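hey can u check if this looks right to u? its 450 residues, i copy pasted from the old doc so theres a chance i mangled smth
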Amino acid sequence: MKEILITVLFFISCCCINAQRLGFDLSNASIVDIGGNYYCQVEVQMKANTAGGMHTRGMVYLDYNSSAFGTNIAQTGSVSFQQEELLDSPSYELVNVTDNRDSTIAITWGPLAFSNLIEVPVNYHPLLLVNLPIVDTSEPIHVCLNGGLMNGQGFKMDVTGAEAIFLNPSVYTNVCQTVLPTDCTSPRPLGKEIISGNVVRLNWLDILGVEKYKVRYREIGTGTWTEVNANVNIRFLNNLTPNTAYEYSIKTVCASGNSTWSFNDSFTTLGTVCNFPATTSINNLTATSATINWSTLPDDTKYKFRYKEFAQGWSDVYVNTNSYTLMGLMPSTIHKYKVKSKCPDGWTNWSPKYSFTTPASLVSGQELRKHDANISFRVFPNPAKDKLNIESDILIVDITIYDLSGRLIQQMFANDFNSTMNISTIEQGIYFATTTFIDGSKVIQKIMVL
């Protein structure tokens, strides 16, 4: 039997007091179904031994077995990841995901701003959730932290005038986890949507081979759980008490038996019927603008609209009507947004994130990017067959290929000044190559694939 070994090499930089030491934990490893494909999902958690340290930037290396996952999986775009609690701030962005070697990927994040950095807590908190696509689900999966590689690594950041790094070696718990194909693993809560004062919608990632799920919940501070069944990975909880804190957990029911209960998550019901807008729509979408509309409720008084270009920081505006027009957008670019409502007793939670892609523009790269004429940038050959080369004086973050309708065809994370993209699988035709640079600017270049 082949074994899948995933090694995490973790770089971290910080602004902290000199006596601090980091701890790492690998947890919640499972086989999950995402969009009909199976992934090995693993969560990296982090803590510090003393309070007061702000982490700024870091890098996670994942080594994987090519017989189970294939090679250069970052280039295929099949790796997915999620910033969790310790990266859930407007100050952080995931810069890129690249193939460090044929069987190694690197996930890098860094600061967008130093005004809202997150303190590393003294108890383990989620940092990053990574999903690696599985080719053969019949093989056992072993996931391990490699302490030997993780020790002695760090970046120095001069944030307050004095350089400081977390001390090494780090402390490790739950160094390895094993998931067998026959295991009935606990589901991982994915999110909760507070519908009203007495209704909440829970959802979690689907588990391979599940028959059904059990959900238990109770008011925090009470001793009796209420249990309900769910045939899919979504469950509405009804008849709750308004303005009340609840905790809940989930277990999987498989043919081989039941899993343990997942960790307890929590939510607080609303005190009124006011909630975030339930639906949104996009009107008047062009290469550089879009109008977003959303539904209203009787108690809404105003709205807060949050938007960003993919991989950039959030921008907020306050709106008195249920629509907002975004101007000056980048063509052929994914944009995300969400909205919350102002009610008589305060602001609601944010709505789920929505996204749209602006269509391509016929503007050339030289017209779009306003840079010093001495800066060198070129895409060649054009027309191209099999390979496309990109060279620049400015660090390239990624290159994305779109067709003329604005549909994403292929994406490659670069993190280099010179990159080569394999385009042998792209059909003949006219496309737009969008190059994103480290400073957030872009060039859109029309290319022909032979």
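The chain has four domains: 4-179, 189-268, 280-357, 365-449.
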